[in-house]
Amino acid sequence: MPQTPWPFHEAMIIAVIGAGRCPKKVAQIAKDVGRELGKRGLTLVCGGLGGVMEAACRGAKETGGQTVGILSGFSRRDANPYVDIPIVTGLGEARNIIVVRTAQAVIAVDGEYGTLSEIAYALKLGIPVVGLDTWQLSRGGHEVGDIVVAHTPAEAVEKAVALAAGHSPTHSQNLLGESKCTVR
Predict the structure, then answer these.
(1) CB neighbour list of residue 4: distance below 8 Å, 6 or more residues apart
(2) pLDDT exceeds 90 at position 176
(3) How far apart are CA 137 and CA 157, in angstroms?
C-alpha cells in the first residue's frame, strides 16, 4: 500500500533570517514577511529564537503558516513560542548553514554578522537571497547584485517564491557547496 508523502517533500520552504534582537520597526517588517508566507501556505524556516525569527514565526502563525526552528542550543525549550517544529542541533552558530540549506530561497531582514554568514552560505550554495534593509555586498569597491533587493514584505515574498520556483540544483553539493565528483 503506497504511503502518503510527508508534506515537507512537496512544500516550498523559505528561510527568514535576521538578528536575534531587533528594534520594533524591524520586528514589524519580519512579522509582515511571516504573514505573507503564511497566507501563501508556505513553510517558514529560521533559527527559531527571538528578534526577527520570533516576529516572522508569529506572523506566519497568525495566517495559518507552518514554522520550523533550527535551534543553536541543546533544548527545544529555547524555541520561540511560534515555532511548530523545533530542531535541536547543539551546533551554536554553525546551525546557520542548516537554516539556509533547508530553504529554497532566503529572505534576509536587517541583520547582524550571523545574518551575514547565512547570506554567504546561501549564495555559496546557489540558494537565492532576497534582502529587506539588509547587508549589501561589494567586491573591489563595486556593488555585487547577488542579494535581490525588495522594498516591502510582500515584494520580498513574491521575489523569494519566484526565485525558489526557478531554483533547482544542477549537481550534488556537500554542506559547504563544494561539488561532489564520482570517478567510475
Answers:
(1) none
(2) no
(3) 21
